[in-house]
Specification:
Number of helices of chain B: 5
Largest interface: A-B, 81 and 57 residues
Largest sheet of chain B: 8 strands, antiparallel
Mean pLDDT of chain A: 77
Radius of gyration of chain B: 66 Å
Low-confidence stretches of chain A: 1-11, 13-24, 135-141
Mean pLDDT of chain B: 85
Structural class of chain A: mainly alpha
Largest sheet of chain A: none
Helix content of chain A: over 70%
Oligomer: heterodimer
Distance between the termini of chain B: 136 Å
Order of helices and strands of chain A: HHHHHHHHHH
Low-confidence stretches of chain B: 85-91
Distance between the termini of chain A: 33 Å
Shape of chain B: rod-shaped
């Protein structure tokens, strides 16, 4: 058990504390309500509440399944990953600390980590990554139909608007880094850009995204 | 943006959140984060931002089958846990087979716990080693930083000293140039004085030479030689002289004129060499007596056999006073 905990700590990103809240606004209030609801649900899940997990699943499965589809490029694999991942979240729920992360971030980052592990296990990794890259910038944004609650849809709108303000290279490389599961060295080799450039652009892109989202009152 | 945006490990935080750190770096980062609230906050914010990227994706509804599967699985997991915690099996009579089975299971459990504990201990040890390594690295960095600062200070001091030394050298150069100029002027004066002294010395030497010069006129002792003129200039210091003859009469071919110096120190005149006279009776010879003359009292010319004699034998034809 101790080994498992330590292993998880070593392999999965952990959100350690909550950022300060931005100035009050309608959007922020809606988002906070959504975040608080997610957190409350996950705490109940941690206590073994099946009904809460059912609701938690309904709130999280859309974004997580969309992420799995994006990263795995295969509906069957994505469904399998979602099933395995949601069960994993159920098991890990007792380690969730709302003082250190929002339920949404915690779930996405843990789920993404497992997707990356899955990608690396796959024999057709290289072919699959290429496929992801090809589709990385061409898929049109839909109307967030997969999101079932209003706050989540509003978050989606804000994030897309903010992401659109990043430079094209930042957007491409950050998306690549987040969705492909590749190392920075692999990204550099695939994009033909110098490793130093890749590192710098990705780091600055995420820091800039964070600053802009905070100005928008997200999360 | 929070104050943590300028955190020195900001870039590492991004790499950590995106899973771009290798295992060793990740362990070290997590260890450092435990003691750094600002870093924890930054990581949390970056995680929120990274997770938000999911919203960029076209949102899809998860298949209904997945929902049923997951909820059923979770239900099963809970039941398995509950079953493990609260065994519902009724008490049965104990039989030896089941005891062996439980014994094997217990052994396996003990073995598993032992392995797990060992693994945990190893991980803990690795963690502690990394922490110690980090601490040593930080200490080494601090020491190196201190050393670099000290060297920088020493270099600055050396630079200042060099500048001061340069100034001193420049001042010394200027002083030396002045001294050299003065020396040159002094040397010129000394040279002039020296030249003057040399001139004076030469003058004195010339005077001294003249003082040592003795001029003697030789008179004929025989009538045949009364037209002849003979003058000797004798340098007493150098003990040598010049003889000049004019209008000397011709003598037989088997005869030679011979010059003699009379010195009281010797019983006989000192041979000073034969004199060849040209057809006009003229001769000019520089001579040096055969012996060391102390005092040249008189000079004499005699007619000797051809080639001269060691002792005067022929008649003296000319004699100084």
């Amino acid at each position: 058990m101790l080994c498992a905990l330590l292993f998880n700590q070593l392999t999965e990103p952990v959100a350690w504390s909550r950022p300060p809240k931005a100035n009050a606004s309608h959007r922020m209030i809606v988002t906070e309500a959504s975040t608080d609801a997610d957190n409350a649900l996950l705490l109940r899940v941690a206590a073994g509440d099946h009904q809460a997990f059912s609701q938690f699943y309904d709130r999280m499965s859309g974004p997580l399944y969309s992420l799995a589809l994006k990263m795995l490029s295969d509906a069957h694999d994505a469904q399998d990953a979602l099933q395995e991942g949601m069960e994993h979240l159920w098991r890990k729920a007792p380690s969730f600390d709302p003082a250190r992360a929002s339920a949404f971030s915690w779930s996405v980052m843990i789920f993404r980590s497992r997707l990356i592990d899955r990608i690396r296990r796959r024999a057709s990794q290289a072919r699959m990554i290429e496929k992801v890259s090809e589709h990385a910038d061409v898929e049109p944004h839909d109307a967030a139909d997969g999101l079932i609650n209003t706050a989540r849809k509003e978050d989606c709108t804000v994030v897309r608007r903010v992401l659109a303000t990043l430079k094209k290279e930042q957007r491409e490389l950050l998306g690549h880094a987040f969705f492909s599961g590749q190392t920075q060295q692999e990204i550099a080799e695939q994009t033909g850009k110098p490793l130093g450039t890749v590192k710098t652009v990705i780091r600055r892109a995420l820091l800039e995204l964070r600053a802009k989202l905070q100005r928008e009152g997200y999360p | 943006m929070s104050d943590s945006s300028q955190h020195p490990l900001g870039e590492h935080a991004v790499d950590y959140v995106l899973g771009h750190l290798d295992n060793a770096a990740r362990v070290q980062f997590v260890h450092g984060m435990e003691r750094d609230e600002a870093l924890q906050k930054l990581v949390a914010e970056l995680s929120d931002s990274a997770a938000a990227i999911v919203y960029e994706l076209p949102q899809h509804k998860a298949p209904d089958a997945a929902r049923d599967f997951v909820l059923q699985r979770v239900q099963n997991v809970s039941q398995e846990r509950g079953a493990a915690i609260v065994p519902k099996t009724p008490k049965k009579p104990v039989n030896i087979t089941s005891l062996i089975g439980w014994g094997v299971a217990a052994c396996f459990l003990v073995y598993t716990i032992s392995r797990t504990s060992t693994h945990y201990a190893e991980l803990q040890k690795a963690h502690d080693q990394l922490a110690a390594h980090e601490q040593r690295s930080n200490a080494a960095i601090a020491a190196m930083t201190k050393e670099i600062e000290a060297k920088r200070a020493a270099a600055a001091a050396a630079e200042d000293a060099l500048a001061t030394a340069r100034q001193s050298v420049e001042a010394a150069k200027a002083q030396l140039k002045t001294v050299a100029d003065e020396s040159r002027q002094l040397m010129a004066l000394k040279d002039a004085e020296y030249a003057k002294l040399l001139a004076e010395r030469d003058q004195i030497a010339a005077s001294a030479t003249l003082a040592n010069m003795q001029v003697a006129t030789l008179q004929a002792t025989i009538d045949d030689y009364k037209q002849g003129v003979a003058v000797v200039v004798w340098n007493a210091q150098k003990k040598e002289g010049i003889l000049k003859l004019e209008r000397m009469p011709a003598i037989p071919a088997n005869k030679d004129f011979q010059l003699w110096v009379v010195d009281p120190a010797y019983k006989t005149p000192v041979d000073s060499g034969i004199i060849k006279v040209d057809d006009k009776g003229f001769a000019r010879v520089e001579f040096k007596p055969q012996l060391d003359v102390k005092s040249a009292d008189k000079f004499a010319i005699s007619v000797e056999k051809r080639g001269g004699s060691t002792v005067a034998e022929g008649p003296i034809v000319l004699l100084s006073n």
